[in-house]
Amino acid sequence: MGYLLPGSSTPTSATPRRTPGPAGWLLLSPLLLWLGLFVVVPTLLLVILSFCSRDPDAPGRVLYAFTLENYVRAFQPTYLKILGSSLLYAFLTAILCLVMGYPVAYFIGRAPEGRRNTLLALVMIPFWTSFLIRTYAWVTILSNQGFLNGILQASGLTSAPVDFMYTPGAVVLGLVYNYLPFMILPIYGSVEKLDQSLIEAAYDLGARPWSALVEVILPLTRPGIVAGFFLVFVPSIAMFAITTLMGGGAVPTVGEVIQKQFTAARHAPFGAALGTLLLLLFFAGLWATKPRREPEPID
Amino acid sequence: MNTMVLLENVSKRFGSTVALQEVNIEIFAGEFLTFLGPSGCGKTTCLRLISGFERPSTGRVILDGRDVTGDPPYLRDVNQVFQTYALFPHLSVRDNIAFGLRMKKLPLAETRERVDKIIEVVSLDGLADRKPSQLSGGQKQRVALARAVVCQPKVLLLDEPLSALDAKLRHQMRLELKSLQKRLGITFVFVTHDQEEALAMSDRIVVMNLGRVEQIGGATEIYHRPATRFVASFIGDTNIVEAEVLGTDDGKILCRLEGGLQVLVRARNAPPDGKILVSLRPEKIRIHKTRPPGENVFRATVISEVFKGAVDDLTLRTEGGLELGVLDTNEGSDEVEFDVGEDAWCRIHPDDVIILGG
Ligand SMILES: Nc1ncnc2c1ncn2[C@@H]1O[C@H](COP(=O)(O)OP(=O)(O)O)[C@@H](O)[C@H]1O
Ligand SMILES: [Mg+2]
Predict the structure, then answer these.
(1) ipTM
(2) Which of A57, A270, B93, B356 is 20 to 30 Å from A74 at the Cα level?
(3) Which residues pair with B298 in a beta bridge?
(4) Does A211 touch chain B (CB under 8 A)?
């Protein structure tokens, strides 16, 4: 998954693969131990749990008896619809972040070297406050008694409050707002490394600005775009805190459903099954977007 | 000869830096013109004004009779070979070369034909499907060249294109570039800080210093008739000597050099007066054991000698204390040798004493 690293360049067949030697493995061991204990083991437990059932007499108790009922339930239209809309919101979020983030990242990456860190800091500083506080700030702006409705009514544009909150739009807005830096940073990494003379070569060879963008700049910053897209898309699918705040339960997302299974609904095995399905989905997505052979020659 | 490019009273400032000052250059169609000068003298800026990546602060850029001062690079019929090649890493050699034609929306069949032809011309056969990362420096250079000339530009701009190559390849590429230019008939505008490169390839050379044009002329003219002190000392080695004009006589000027030596100088344009600077090339000063006949003969003592194979590199001091570098060619096997401390007769032809302006 090396290509998920911000700004990593497209691999070429000229670079030989290297496996770490004994010293390399030693240096990697703390990380491997950490990943094993806190990622691999819990994930396996989750998968096992997804094949268990709930004690009908004591909700919340797990019966360790193999069953597929959680998966059968997960494929019911209700849940498929929720999964589908979650994917859609996450996809929209990633696209909007890309459309808004790319020009920003490009601008910062092409700014004079001395100014780049300042500009990056300006992007980052708002994110030093908790995302919950920042999301609540949106609530105060968008709610029926909020700032935006206040302006709309005071100016006479609307007579009754407009429902901004608890709509899919509000959910996507909350996600976009919170995940935008995860799009900007990896793209910035790619743009910053883009050699100015390549852009000039494109213009020199007759490319108008739009062609230069499509033919040279976008392909060469693809690693950053791919990384940014995944860094936004993947966590957006299962994000429940923002969707709960902005959607208020009116816009159910898969993250919220999973969270509820482990808490209020007290049906951990079903939550685990949904989680496992998401995991499979991520792997499928990774496999499908894996960089393959380079674009074909002209003929 | 038709004018292809005209830089008319062009000045360029970057903030408080003056990169070019009142530059006037006429580039003829089909010639190989070289900008030569030390680093930072404004050569690249001149190229970028022609390619359109910079706009002049004042003055005009005329390309093939049309004022292109305000045109962006993609509207100018000019292509460039970049110093770092700037090959598109995500495209194959073939796609790199085809890029310009694709941008011009040429029919695919014609694109393919022209690309294949130019691949042959620059001997890149068999490499067309490689990526730039799989090429050597010399091959990248050829791709960069092919990518530019396949567009059949009115002017090809080359910014120190050979500086990243090793010495052997650089010498070979000089010849190839020159012959390619002859074959294609495209106007080449070449930039280098290497005088040898400039002298070897160019039809004409623009010598620049500190954002100004010092002299424009052919290689031999620039070498043998440097117009300014800068040109004389930048190109080849020379003795630059202060002199005072004593009088004119029959098309020749009598000068007294530092140290009191009197020499006759061929007057070319209006004879100057007062204090002047003259240039005496070391190889133009002939030395002899016995007094030779003719004008401008003087005595001097050898104070150092370095044997350099084809030549002896000598330093001589005249009776008046003037020190001159002299190159004595080792032509025959019966060549006369000079030892340090020995006295010698020196002679310089009046045509070879060059009066410098500026
Ligand atoms: N984009 C720029 N911004 C500021 N100064 C520049 C810029 N480009 C060139 N200069 C300055 O202009 C002068 C001429 O530069 P350049 O044309 O690159 O010289 P050369 O190619 O002969 O080495 C130098 O002093 C350089 O520092
Ligand atoms: Mg330069």
Answers:
(1) 0.87
(2) A57
(3) B346
(4) yes
